[in-house]
Amino acid sequence: MLVQKKVIVLGGGESGVGAAILARNKGFDVFLSDRSQLHQKYSDILTRENIPFEQGIHSEARIFDADLVIKSPGIPDTVPLIRALKEKEIPVISEIEFASGYTDAKIIAITGSNGKTTTTLLAYHLLKNAGLHVGLAGNIGDSFAWQVAEKDYEYYVLEISSFQLDNIIHFRPHMAVLLNITPDHLDRYDYNFQNYIDSKFNIIRNQTAEDHFIYFQDSEVIRKEIEKRNIPSSMLAVSLESETEQGAYFFNRKLISNVSGKSFEEDFAELPVKGPHNAVNALAAITIAQLCGLNPVAIREGLLSFRNAPHRLEEVETIHEVTYINDSKATNVDSVFYALGSFEQPVILIAGGVDKGNDYSQIEELVRNKVKGLIILSKDFEKLRDYFTGIVAHIYTTQDVQNAVNKAQEWSVPGDVVLLSPACASFDLFQNYEDRGNKFKAAVRNLVHS
């Protein structure tokens, strides 16, 4: 008698429920466990799909009886339950690892400390707009595993976080993109930057000579790491500083790409995304499109019709010639560096939240030269306030987003930019960065109607 393999899914969010559905569809004995209460949407889905689950508790005896554990990326490897599973030599993998074993689609995986969402959305848009049968998943959109269970795409464009890459074994993207590596989430990596670097480089761990590795050449961290490694995949560089033989670069305000003997050129000013960081994102996406065989007309049409996701340098309103920008997705200092670099106008910066061991020296010069006022929207404001006292002429602290926006309006004059770019996580005052961004937008629109 064939015994069903026991699969435990830890975490009942989008990735966990998707993994449970795929595991059930592949004939496994599946059980989902979440220490918190499930969102009603997901408990309803599990009930409908006849997948047993528990919430508010981890039944360790049942979990330790598993043959395989699929873990939510939000659960650190350091928690006692995961350590105990590893001591018992029960494999613990991520959803992307599990799902990738059940699809023959070409996988395009994109990671980086910043820019991966925009690059993923842009690459997906270019391919979809050109008529390719492509799915969007990973750290964005619907669960990768769920789509593998129910769809039959030729391509997947995946936004991949370091947390997802920590628990891979065989995951092998046909195209891997590494945009940048700057200190982030160090609390998950024993405050050791090299551990975080190694996690990001897991994206090419299983690549072969048949695969492609697209990387940002101007990053000193990435360059040094490449020199230390024997990388078998075909390497394509992206650069804002120098011409690349194979890959893409920025020259004379143009995006120029040369891949496999095919060239492409486009004026960056024509694109709907702005700023040097988005030039890097666009160059990476163009390289992906060329590797997928898109012609220049299709690439150009896709670039010009792209619209970025909310909360990423999203223009909310212009009120009395002052532009209000929602960049709530900027949850680390590097993101704020790119955001400030996108504007020539004087900036009133709204920042703050849960500090993740931030080093504000990275943005000190930009803040000194561009920021006329700093509004700290946070319960813990001391670190930001103390660092920028003497650097910014005006600093104000608050825990109320409407109060923050009102103060920004009071300080602003025509031609200014009010920029929400927090450099911090959102959990002190908001549910998540989307909630923070939505409440900022609502507060700005209250100005219009007041």
CATH fold descriptor of the largest domain: UDP-N-acetylmuramoyl-L-alanine:D-glutamate ligase
- Shape designation: globular
Indicate the low-confidence ranges by residue numbers: none
Number of helices: 17
Structural class: alpha/beta
Q: Using the 3D structure, state the CATH architecture of the largest domain.
A: 3-Layer(aba) Sandwich
Main pleated sheet: 9 strands, mixed
**Overall number of domains:** 3
Q: Cα distance, first to last residue? A: 72 Å
CATH superfamily of the largest domain: Mur-like, catalytic domain
Gyration radius, to the nearest Å?
Answer: 23 Å
Written description of the protein model:
Residues 311-424 form the Mur ligase C-terminal domain. It is found in: Cytoplasm. Residues 110-288 form the Mur ligase central domain. The protein has 450 residues and is α/β, with parallel strands linked by helices. 35% of the residues lie in helices and 22% in strands. It contains 17 helices and 20 strands. The strands form three sheets. A nine-stranded mixed β-sheet has the order 7-8-6-9-10-11-12-13-14, with helices on one face. Strands 15-16-20-17-18-19 form a six-stranded mixed β-sheet, sandwiched between helices. Strands 3-2-1-4-5 form a five-stranded parallel β-sheet. The chain is globular and about 70 Å long. The chain starts with 5 loop residues before the first strand and ends with a helix. The mean pLDDT is 94.
